[in-house]
From TrEMBL:
GO biological process: regulation of DNA-templated transcription
Species whose genome carries this gene: Bacillus zhangzhouensis
Pfam name, any one: VEG
Top-level lineage group: Bacteria
Name the record gives this protein: ABC transporter permease
Lineage of origin: Bacteria, Bacillati, Bacillota, Bacilli, Bacillales
Gene3D superfamilies: 2.30.30.100
Length: 85
């Protein structure tokens, strides 16, 4: 796992356009699980384009700090290897 916010951003920049599964803490012992594509990265946040057949909204964004604090977990659906953040 990456140690700094810049390491996390750099590794996500290398995975732009790839399919992923997102697990996020929804509060009160709820876990939200969604799938989509890593669409964009910005200096403070990243954007995931969600699959429309499963979700009522198109996009969701999280900060790199969410990955660092393990509030959000990303698993890329790469056929060669599964990479988790």
């Amino acid at each position: 796992m990456a140690k700094t916010l810049s390491d996390i951003k750099r590794s996500l920049d290398g995975n732009l356009g790839k399919r992923l599964t997102l697990k996020a803490n929804g509060g009160r012992r709820k876990t939200i699980e969604r799938s989509g594509i890593l669409a964009e990265t910005y200096p403070s946040v990243f954007v995931i384009q969600l699959d429309q057949d499963e979700n009522s909204f198109e996009r969701v964004s999280y900060s790199y700090a969410d990955i660092l604090t393990e509030t959000v977990e990303l698993t890329f659906d790469d056929t060669a290897s599964s990479v988790a953040y």
